[in-house]
Design goal:
The protein has about 600 residues and is mostly beta strands. It folds into 4 domains: about 35 residues, no CATH class; about 80 residues, Carboxypeptidase-like, regulatory domain (Immunoglobulin-like, Sandwich); about 180 residues, Sandwich (Jelly Rolls), CATH 2.60.120; about 180 residues, Jelly Rolls (Sandwich). It is about 5% helix and about 40% strand. The protein is built from 4 helices and 44 strands. Strands 32, 34, 36, 37, 39, 40 and 42 form a 7-stranded antiparallel β-sheet that branches. Strand 2 and strand 3 form a beta hairpin. The longest helix is centred in the N-terminal third of the chain and has 23 residues.
């Protein structure tokens, strides 16, 4: 024991000399290294915590003799009649929940056999704990992973994947998680990340997480930002351009964290429940975010995000994961943005460095503090275009050059060229969950899984809002008493398709209501931005006939009918398909086109 303590005081070089003396004898000048008892003495003092409060119950031990005592209620202690060593005393102070302290008292510290030692001890009852899952095995609990913050402070995850490292001082740590056959996970835990002495850190091993909870395998399967415009919110600030029945950003499938559809927009909220408040601050990884895949081209490399806040400042940004790389990493689009404006405004992001590549585009919000950190970032619109929006405008149509053949449609050339072709071949217009203005978001969230048309297609509310939850299907309609116009629609839906043999026939299952005819058209826009008004190859309507400007007018009767279109002339091409409803005649009614189902065969 004495030799070990001497090694701790003198180091390896001195110990080598000392061992040499034991073996061969030492000269007088080497005798200084000999540790001998030179008398006895008493050590007294006071033990306090980091707040300078007296600390009772501390065990005070002279390590050379193992004599010990315990500090009293006022933190005082006295350790009497300990042997004094020529090389000094090592006295330790231990108490459960506090970091051990050791001091060395050389003989010169003792005056008439008495020495004073006042010691401050650091609270060391902090805990880092969490849950580990196995990304290589269906996210089952991961047993047997070593989680450590130092050589002496570690834990091993149990059969349920849980671990806990206790007895820690409140300070910064680097947490390391290792298991054979899995990439090592490292995480920085800061002193401010402890809430009531606890940090919860969950991890998913087996693959590198690029976004929280998501590996590259997950991201390669992410839904696509098929279209170039996504609007959120419930307020009709610029009806019908913005209205709960027209804005479907909330139907996107990948909202991650604490998300809410609010009057003002689709809202990213910092997770702030009681357990969430223990999450560490992290200005590199999103706390709450939405993400999707997008092929970046010159036509959509200008990302405009229109937003506002409820609490400020909100720290947020855009991250890119380049799926074309062999080993993708997170790339940041410019610096972290700070939102502190309760009114709508625009932020701009340059995606041109990724032109020609399919990437994951993620928009998210950072937790900048541990504890009660409540922030809400409200997204009113995400828009991919070849130019940015006018920063002074929020309520405006997509910027760019409009399709010349479609005046008043607000369909731009960049939208046609850079929207992504759809994958699905069947869509329903029936929402699996009903709703109204008060609870519509529950329905919108169900749309992706159901293959609802408006989870994939985009809607252009030029003059009128739709009936979202009609029993017969998603319904686009006209105003009630407007002048006839078979060129400019009242509203329309659109999506892009790669047309090929076996994938070149579109069937619309629809109906209308009442005695008046509904006027509609199906328009195919090719990549040269030319519009082609398509006549149906067949239909099952009670009455149907061609009308002006490529429209067809029909009455379905009391049941659904089908309109089938032959798109084979576009085989080998990508085309934008638009289904629009028009005021074909002035009859005082809202004339309706029900999208019960759309099939591509």
């Amino acid at each position: 024991m004495a030799l070990t303590k001497l090694f701790n005081r003198l180091g390896m070089a001195a110990l080598v000399v000392l061992l040499s003396c034991f073996a061969t004898g030492c000269s007088d000048k080497d005798d200084v290294l000999t540790d001998v008892v030179v008398g006895s003495g008493t050590v007294s003092g006071t033990v306090t915590d980091e707040n300078n409060q007296p600390l009772s119950g501390v065990t005070v031990t002279d390590l050379s003799s193992t004599k010990s005592t315990v500090s009293s209620g006022d933190g005082g202690f006295t350790l009497s009649d300990i042997p004094l060593h020529s090389q000094g005393q090592i006295v330790s102070f231990t108490k459960e929940g506090y970091e051990e302290v050791s001091i060395t008292l050389v003989p010169s510290k003792f005056a008439k056999g008495m020495a004073t030692a006042d010691v401050q001890m650091t609270f060391a009852n902090a805990v880092i704990k969490g849950h580990l899952t196995d990304a290589q095995n269906g996210d089952k609990p991961l047993e047997g992973a070593l989680v450590s913050v130092s050589a002496t402070k570690s834990a091993v995850s149990d059969a349920d994947g849980y671990y806990e490292i206790s007895g820690l001082a409140l300070r910064d740590y680097t947490l390391t998680i290792t298991k054979a056959g899995y990439p090592t996970v490292n995480a920085n835990i800061g002193i401010n990340d402890f809430v009531d002495g606890v940090v919860v850190y969950d991890a998913r091993l087996g693959a590198v997480e690029l976004l929280r909870g998501l590996t590259i395998d997950d991201l390669r399967k992410a839904p696509r930002w098929y279209n170039n415009e996504y609007k959120g919110g419930r307020n009709a600030d610029a009806y019908p351009m913005f209205d709960w029945a027209c804005d479907y950003m909330g139907s996107f499938a990948t909202w991650t964290g604490d998300y809410e559809e609010q009057n003002e927009g689709s809202t990213l909220r910092i997770r702030n429940g009681e357990d969430d408040q223990k999450n560490p601050a992290d200005e590199k990884n999103f706390d709450t975010f939405v993400y999707g895949r997008k092929l970046i081209t010159a036509d959509n490399s200008h990302l405009t995000i229109q937003l506002r806040t409820h609490q400020s400042p909100c720290y947020w940004g855009v991250q890119i994961i380049d799926l074309t790389k062999a080993d993708p990493t997170v790339e940041y689009v410019g610096n972290t943005r700070v939102a502190d404006n309760g009114s709508y405004y625009s932020e701009f992001f340059d995606l041109s460095p990724w032109e020609g590549k399919e990437v994951v585009v993620a928009v998210g919000h950072y937790r900048m503090e541990t504890g009660d950190y409540w922030r809400q970032l409200v997204l009113r619109r995400l828009a991919f275009s070849n130019v940015y929006f006018d920063p002074s405008e929020v309520y405006t149509w997509m910027p760019g050059t409009e399709i010349a053949d479609l005046p008043g449609w607000h369909m731009t050339e960049s939208m046609v060229r850079s929207s992504m072709p759809q994958d699905l071949t069947h869509y329903t217009g029936i929402s699996p969950v009903g709703g109204n203005r008060d609870n519509y978001i529950d329905a919108y969230r169900s749309w992706h899984g159901a293959g609802h048309v408006m989870a994939y297609w985009s809607h252009m509310p030029l003059h009128k809002d739709p009936d979202v939850f009609a029993n017969e299907g998603y319904m686009i309609k006209t105003r009630g008493n407007e002048a006839p116009d078979t060129k400019e629609p009242e509203q329309y839906v659109y999506a892009k398709y790669s047309i090929a043999p076996g994938h070149n026939k579109l069937t619309l299952t629809t109906r209308n209501f009442g005695d008046n005819a509904t006027y509609f058209k199906l328009t195919a826009i090719t990549m040269d931005c030319k519009a082609h008004f398509m006549a149906p190859a067949s239909n099952t309507a009670m009455e149907a006939s061609a009308a002006e400007d490529g429209c067809w007018k029909f009455r379905s009767g009391d049941d659904y009918c089908k309109f089938t279109y032959d798109l084979s002339e576009f085989d080998g091409q990508d085309v934008m398909i638009c289904i629009s409803v028009h005021n074909g005649e002035k009859n005082g009614d809202e004339n309706k086109l029900t999208l019960n189902a759309i099939d591509i065969e």
